[in-house]
Amino acid sequence: MAKLSKLVKESWLEDKKEETTSDQKTKFLEAVSNFHDYGKSIYREHNLKDVTQQIGELINTASELTISEADSGWFDKMTINRHVKQLKESFKIFEKTAKDMTILQNRLDSSYETIGEVLSKYFEINERIDDQIKEEDSAYQEFFRKALEKFGVKSPNDFKSDEEKKKFFSYVENNYQAKNESIKKLKSLIK
C-alpha cells in the first residue's frame, strides 16, 4: 500500500485552486512524522487516582490532628469543626472531579492512539524518541559488556593502567555503531 505522503508529492494534487507549496508539504510531513511528540502533552506523569487517594489520606490525618489539638485547648473547637467540614466537602468535590477527569483522560488517550494508528496507515510516523533511546541504551550496554569481556575485565576500574583504560574506551568509541545516528548524537548531548 502506497503511503499518502508519496501521493502528496504527485502532480495531480497541484491542479487544485489552492496550491500547497513544497515548503508547506514538507512542514506537514515533518509534523506528522513527529506525531508521537504530542504524546508528551497527552499522557500524564502521575496517576490521578493515586494522587486523589494520597490527598484523601492527608485530609484524614489533618482532620484528626486538628481535632486533637482542639481538645488540648489551643484552638476554638467550633471553628476547627467548621474548617474540617469545609475541607471534607472540598475533598468530595475534588474526588468526583478527579474521577471524571480520569474517565476523560482515558478517552483522550484512546482517541490520541486511534489518531496515530489511522495517520500511520497513510503517513510515516517516527518512533518515540524515548523508546529509541531505551533500545539504543540496551544495545550499547550489551556492546560495552562484550568489549569488557574481550579485554578480560569485569569493569573499567579493573584496568591496571590509565593507558589500558584509554585503549578500551577508544575501542568502544571506534567500534560501536549506533542504529540511528541521530540517537547517538542525542545521547551524547544528554551525557
Q: How many distinct folded domains?
A: 2
Biggest pleated sheet: none
Mean pLDDT: 76
Structural class: mainly alpha
Number of helices: 8
Query: What distance lies between the first and last C-alpha atoms, to the nearest angstrom?
Result: 41 Å
Number of strands: 0
Q: In percent terms, what proportion of residues is strand? A: under 5%
Could you spell the SSE succession in H and E letters? Answer: HHHHHHHH
Helical proportion? over 70%
Global shape: flat
Radius of gyration: 29 Å
3D architecture notes:
The protein is about 70% helix and about 0% strand. It is an all-alpha fold and about 190 residues long. The radius of gyration is 29 Å and the shape is flat. The chain has 2 domains: about 80 residues; about 60 residues, no CATH class. About 0% of the residues are buried. The mean pLDDT is about 75. The longest helix has about 45 residues.
Keywords:
191 residues; mainly alpha; 2 domains; 72% helix; 0% strand; flat
SSE topology sketch:
Blueprint: H1 4-8, H2 22-33, H3 39-42, H4 48-71, H5 77-122, H6 129-150, H7 162-175, H8 181-190
Helix pairs in contact: 4-5
Task: Write a compact overview of the structure shown.
This protein has 191 residues and is mostly helical. The chain folds into 2 domains: 84 residues; 62 residues, no CATH class. It is 72% helix and 0% strand.
